[in-house]
Each structure stands twice: as structure tokens, then as C-alpha cells.
């Protein structure tokens, strides 16, 4: 039985157009949420009238607020959300593991440890670049540890190794903060382990952005190989994929971009887990296509969570990581349950 | 001490009176007929200050370790002559005190142990307004047997408060105490009471919150305070809090806002020296030209 | 295009999985690689595609040594169907087959008409056209095996190596796959397949290579290689053999329990 080239051809064109449509929609939503993020201010009790008093406010003040407070926050939300989505999709494609994401495998927590060491030892005051660099070092060490612990093990072995790395790094972070003579240090653990982009400034954007973009470039370069890797490492090698080079791109790209993000925002988890999963069916399950979609989806998710953080009025700040954990935690459980029945484990 | 500052959970009105009464009665019951205590230990930075105001040095056997910290207590160098404790039960018992004073709800396990072992413990409330300072002084004076001295101090205190209190009417300028990580005090705090007495309005008054909370930079910029107190930067050794004070938006805000640096020890804890904070604020009030709205 | 393996040695710690092994594969022939478990057959294939490290020897594809070829050139010359049947994502079967065109594609654009045509040919060859749009995970074992074979065929390489292509397939699909491999060989591809089914090996292969403990112990026509002596010494079984009008079969029947196996073969 032969295929009619015309009939199937239409299907392929439709499939391609669907994909462009998905990307276009995601891109538009990202832009909308970004604008909304810049437009929304904190609605703490008693200040709900603030948005309506915008006309009466000194335009200089308004421009200052937008330029120095809201814009950096929105840009960071975009960069971090996109990084987490992109890294999650890449890790899942490379490890062929639907439970992989930088938070779950402990890369984020290790980056936080690096960042904490940079700040609380005073190193980042002497050399501001020490902050992202040490965070990135933390991520790379985590990946090395993971390789040693899980190597090429099964799905759940990697998650277990990730839990181990995460706990270890979390413990050392707590230790470092506890030992600091600064009375606020122990309280700041909440920032590092739950994540926040409140009151960050453009300094943080400039500090993180170059590394984030470099990481994105590395991750994007691994995209095609991820498709071939769906068949397994050996088949991919036989198709000409340089698996070692792909590993360097994936690991390096993840460590650099996620490391830099964690350095300025603390650990934010679950974005890289949830977003690729939700979007995978929309891109025909193809790993390479999932990268761009997940980046946009991650940006949307994080920006929305950040808007939510500002709209929910509390005396102490609701941390961003709490919102993503509330969304992602149950999702993670659901995934594990589904995986269990699927693999019959 | 920043951690303690946020814990001003003084119950108001009748509840407080009952507490005070209860404490007083329990002390009176246990100390009835005894002489004035000769070996008094304070395990809290606030009671350190009250104690040293009322009692001669020879009768004080120990102060808390924060007494020597210039950012937490105005005792500072004077604390050198005393044994400085860390509020650990073993340590305190080793001093063989006949009275232990502290603030309610701090060091709860330690206080529980001490009470169980039969030591007389006096727990005072954190002052949440100027009147509370008077109440605390009176209660402590009863327990240590210095009621006359206390009354003298109190009348001088009240007189000076009267002098410095702002009597005018009309819209009040906005005073904001903006500490590390954006923490500001609520309406029901000593800082707010002092600010109100000096003729200011605080964020707690303007926005209507009674407990301390975090205020974001954005809110501050919108509200355009007339006077800000930034508090101690807490950047040695460095931590995240130090970063928040270097935010460019805050720098811009500070260019256009008058600032004042009231030493924290004057009004974290209520004491007779809280007057100095009031005097400083009142002077700033008088110097301030209200920004045209 | 010829695959020439000369004196290949693959070592893991002190143990030689492949020991000074030589073989050739030419276009147009269907060669069977047989031998007991652990003989080193899969390792041999994996070393040819570069997944295992050589301790010694040469692998030459066409006129060039494999290590001097770029990954893409080698991929275009030598297609490989691994034992692993697992495809992680719910890709449509057609997309899986399209992965066979990976060595010919660059960038993220849509595939060229040439590639689409190659995929069509491959799908037709394995009779998978009707379920090409379905997710590969929803297919039965036999259907999935054919799709993965189509993926290897889509490379349209002059040489094809298949590692146990008929494992876990029912008899219908086993015969079907063997027929596909044979017709492919007739069309000019050099096919090397690792097999455990001795009857199918005897029936379809032009030439058999018998491996044991990393070495080639026999090579030649199936009747010669599947001699009783080889079956006893290498496979440690006795077999029922019969030649009928339609064809011959080799049926392993009984195990031989011997203490010291030296593997000396006639």
C-alpha cells in the first residue's frame, strides 16, 4: 500500500502550521503577561486605591517606579521563567526522563549554595561577578555529583539522586546562613529556598542576563540532537549525534543559565517540570520543538505567579517559590503516580 | 535587636491589666515579707535598661549579653562591669539570683525551667506606647523595692513628654521607619507612639495596620514620606538585607526625603531614655517644611 | 561500499569482549551474526558505530577509517538498528521514521521533499503506511518493531546493521522482517543482522558468522556453520535438523552439560 504524497502532504503542512500557531499564541500571551506585570503594583491592604491614584501621582515618581522597580522585576520574571522552562524541556529531552527539571535534580539548590557563599562571605561585595559565577559553579558541582550517583540509571534513580543532592545543598546553605554573624542571615534562608524577585534592581538584571543568554544559546544548540536521542543513545550515535558534545551543551547550558537565575532569585522549582509536560502534546511530542514553547510557557507561568504574589496582600511577602510549589507539587505527585502505573514499577 | 522588635504582641486594655495584676500578685505572694532583692539578674536587653535605671549596680548580678551591643542597648560600655549572660537556664542558676527579670514571651523554655525550680521570675510586657514605659517602671520598682525612686523618675519623664509633645492641629507629615528588608512598625508600637507625640503620622496610622509589616519600595515611592529613619544597615558581615538598602530606587527616594537616624536602642525597648528619641523627632518636625501637596 | 573490520579488540578492564576479530560486509549480501549470549555480538556492532571504545584494530567503511569520518558521513554510510525498542515520547510513527533522515537534515526547517519521499519509501517497505500517523507508543510490539526498522531503512545507507531485529516478534512478523531484510539486500544494501533463531538464519542468510567469546569461530554457508560440531561446542546444544522440499530447519533440542568447555572447533 503506497501513500498518496498529496494527502499526507496536507497533513504535514497542517501540522507545521499548528506548531507556528502554538508558538505565536504563546509569544503573544508572554507579551501580554509581561505588560501586565509592569502595570501591576502591590495591592496591600489600604493601598488598593493606589492603582486608581496613578493620575494624581507625580509622573517622575511613576517613571522611577516603573524603570527601577517594575521593569527589572518583569524582565527577571521573563528571563527566569524562560530559563526554567527551557532547561526543564532540555533536561527531559536529554535524560529521556519526564521527571527531570533543574529543581528536582538539585541543580537549583546547589546554585543557591554557591550564591549564599558568595554573598555571606563578602566576596560579592569585592567582585560583583562572583555572585553568578559561584552559583554556576554550584550547579556544575551538582551535575557532577548526579553523574556519580545516578550515571545512566533509571527514571526514579535520577530523582532520588536529585533529592539527595538537593537535601545536601539545602543543609549546607542552612549551615552557612546559621553561622553568619549577621542577625538576618538565618531568616534569609526563606528567600534562598523559596525564591523571590521582589524589589530586585536593574543591577541584578545586568548581573544575570549575559549568563542566562549564553546558557540559552548552549541549550538551543542541543535541540536537534534531542530529537535523535528519543531513540536512545546508541541509535542517536549511529545517526551522527555527538553524544558527548550534546551532554556538554545540555549540562553547561543548564548550569550557566539556571545558576545565574538562582543567584538573583533563590530557588524556584517546578516550573521546568510542569510547563514542558503541559506543552508537549501541543508540539507533537517533539523534543526540539518543545524548547521554544517551554521557554515561552515558563515565562508566562512565572510572570503570572509573580503577579499573583503581588495581588495577594499579606504582611510578609508571599514567596514566588511557594506559588510554583503549590502548582507543581501536586503535579509532581500526579506524574509519579502515572509513571508508576505506566512502568508497572 | 531586630528579631525582638517585631514581636510586640502586647494585649491591650483589660487583658494587660489582668496580666500585670497577676504577675504582681504572684510576686507579692512569693516575696511577701522579704527584703529588697540583692542579686538581680536580667536576661533580656529591655529589662537590662530598666533595671540599671532603677537599681544601684551592686544589686545587679548579671545583664544580658546584648547590653554591650551598641546597636541593641544604650548601656554599651557601662556593661563591662557586669557578667553578661545568654539567657541559658544553667548559666542563670549558677549566678544564684534572688530575682530574675525578663520580657514576657522571650526565652520561654528558660523561664519555664526557672519557675519550675522555684526562682522568682518577673516578666514585663514590651512597651508598645509611652504609658507602658511608666507601667513597667512601676511594676519593676515594686519588685526591687525602689518605688520612691521610680515615682521621681516617672514624674520627670511625664513632664518632659509633655514638653516635647506636639500640640498643633492639621495634616501631619508622614514618618516612616524603614528597616532592613523593608520592615516598618505598626500603629500599636512604641515607635509609632513616639512619632505621633512628636507630631507625625506613621504608615500604620495612614494605612491602618497595627502590627509591623513589610513595606515595598513601590509603596514608599507612592506615599512619599516626609521623614525616614533607615535604621542600622546590618551589613557586617554582609547579607541580603544589605542589598535592599542599595536599591537605586531607594537611593532616588532618599535624595528627595529628609532622613533622621534615631539610635535604635532609644526606642526598641521602652526606657526613660526614649525621651531622647521623642526630642529628636520633635526637632525634626519643627525643622521640616511640609512639601506642598 | 564495504565494511571491513580488522583485528578488532574491545576490552573492559582485563576482559576482552571482542578479541582480535575480523569480518567484512559487502553491499548486496545478507549476513547473519550468530553466537551464544555474551559472545560479543552486540558489542561488536556498538563499537562499529562508535559507542564502545576500541582497544585495538581497525574499522574501515568504504575507503576511510571510521575515526577519520565525520559523524554525519558515517551515519550516511552505515545505518544501525539497536536492540533497544524504547521510544521515550509519544511521537507519531512517521516522525520516528523521519529521524532516520537526521544525517541529511540541518536546522529547524521543515524536511525537504527528498526526505519525505525517503520516509514514504521506508514506510511502504515495512507495510506501516496505514498507521504512520499514530503515536508510536500506541502501536503493538510488531508494529513498533517495523516502524523502528523503517527508521533504519529511511537512512538509505549502503550498509545496515541490525541487532536482534526479530526479538519479541510473533512468527508472522519475524518472517516479515526477514523478508524485508532480504529484499533490501537484493536491492543493493549490505545487511548484517544479529540473530538467535537458527532456522531463520539458515533460511534467509547468504552467509553466517559464528562468534564465541569475542572471536569468530566459523564463517561461511549456513549449512557449514551450523554443523553439529559447532552447535555442540559453541551453543552447547544438540539440534534436530531436517531438510524438506520447502526448506530446512535447525531446531535446538537438548542442552549439553559439560564441565570444561574448551571450544576447540573443527
Structure characterization notes:
The complex is a heterotrimer of chains A (345), B (293) and C (266). Chain A is mainly α and 345 residues long. Chain A has a single domain, classed as ABC transporter involved in vitamin B12 uptake, BtuC. Chain A is 74% helix and 0% strand. Chain A has 14 helices and no strands. Chain A starts with a helix and ends with a helix. Chain B folds into 2 domains: 10-161, 3-Layer(aba) Sandwich (Rossmann fold), CATH 3.40.50; 174-287, Nitrogenase molybdenum iron protein domain (Rossmann fold). Chain B has 14 helices and 11 strands. Chain B has helices at residues 2-5, 13-31, 45-54, 89-94, 108-116, 130-144, 147-164, 190-197, 203-207, 217-223, 240-244, 248-255, 264-267, 274-287; strands spanning 40-42, 60-64, 83-85, 99-103, 121-124, 174-177, 183-184, 201-202, 213-214, 227-229, 258-260. In chain B, helix 5 links the parallel strand 4 and strand 5. In chain B, helix 7 (147-164) runs parallel beside helix 14 (274-287). The longest helix of chain B is centred in the N-terminal third of the chain and has 19 residues, at 13-31. Chain C has a single domain (2-255), classed as P-loop containing nucleotide triphosphate hydrolases (Rossmann fold, 3-Layer(aba) Sandwich), CATH 3.40.50.300. Helix content of chain C is 32%, strand content 29%. Chain C has 9 helices and 12 strands. In chain C, strands 6-7-8-3-9-10 form a 6-stranded mixed β-sheet, sandwiched between helices. In chain C, helix 4 crosses helix 5. Chain C is globular, with a radius of gyration of 19 Å. The chains are: A mainly alpha (345), B alpha/beta (293), C alpha/beta (266). Chain A binds chain C through residues 1-3, 5, 8-9, 11-12, 16, 96, 223-224, 227-228, 230-235, 237-242, 280-281, 284-288, and chain C through 46, 49-51, 70-72, 74-76, 78-82, 84, 86-92, 94-96, 99-100, 102-103, 105, 108, 110, 116-117, 120, 123-124, 127, 129-130, 132-133, 135, 148, 151, 155.
